[in-house]
Each structure stands twice: as structure tokens, then as C-alpha cells.
Input
Amino acid sequence: MSDSGNDTDEPLPPDELGPRLMEVFDLVGPLYRRVQREVERGEAVEGLSVGVRAVLDLLRRHGPMTVPQMGRAQAISRQFVQRMVNDAAARDLVESTPNPAHRRSSLIRLTDGGRAAITAVVAREHAVLREAGGDLTDADLRACVHVLTRMLALFDTVDVDGPPPRPVRATPP
Output
């Protein structure tokens, strides 16, 4: 990241905030793709795709959820989540159960095999992440989570299930 010289606890003015947040976006994209590759390398060990891993981890952390809930939580389409749930169900990693709150939207929950699979994946990932080491503090991580949470909230209204927006065409002067 660049050093703007403004190393204070005061909120940044909007004209400075935008460029600084772009620095975060510039790091998040490559980081996400590298982590995805690492998960895919582990797929040979656990046999889980990145999408199935995400579904299993959501269920591990939050308990039974519906497909729409999982889609909203991960900002991905319900159709993609449904495919991942179907893949996981075909491998007996998840199962559908009746949803007392909504008859047509079943709850998806981990099976014992699914719980064992995601526990193994998370343990391997934690072992890799321990290597970050260095001088990172709890305050650093809290600040990082705070910034990323605010950035995520900024785009909370983006509809991941709707059609993509039409390109805006510039009108001639």
C-alpha cells in the first residue's frame, strides 16, 4: 500500500478514502484468486471443489441454511449454490431437511461425512495460514475485518441473482 502520510485515527475525507479503498480492492482480487488456487490444490486431497467447500463451511459455521440464505451470505447466485448443494448431496456431504419456516425452501445441513470433510479442509487451511506469522497483531486483523466489512456493506444492494446491468454508452458531446 502507498503511504499517504496521513497516519492518524481521523476518518479520511471522501476524496482520499476512495483511492485508498481502491488499494484494498487491488489486493483483494489477486488474494482471492491465489487462495482459490490453493483450495483447488487441496481438492486432490479432500476431493472438494471451491464451491462445495464454501457451502460446507457456511453450514459448519452457521448450522442448517436454505439455498437462498447461502447465496445471500456469499453474494453468489442461488443457481450456483444449488449446483454446489447438489454436488455435495450426491457425495453424501449434505442433506435436505424440512424447513418449519418455509415449506418450499428446505434446510440444508451437514451429514457426518460432510462435517468430517470440512473439518479436515479447515484444519489444513489453518496450518497454511499459520505461516503468515510476522508481526500481525489482533488490532491489525480487527482493522482489516472492519475495513472489509464496510466495503462489503457498500455493495450490499448488488443483486447477484438478477441479470447483469447493461453497459452504459457514452453519448456524443
Notes: The mean pLDDT is 86. The chain has six helices and two strands. The first helix runs from residue 14 to 46.
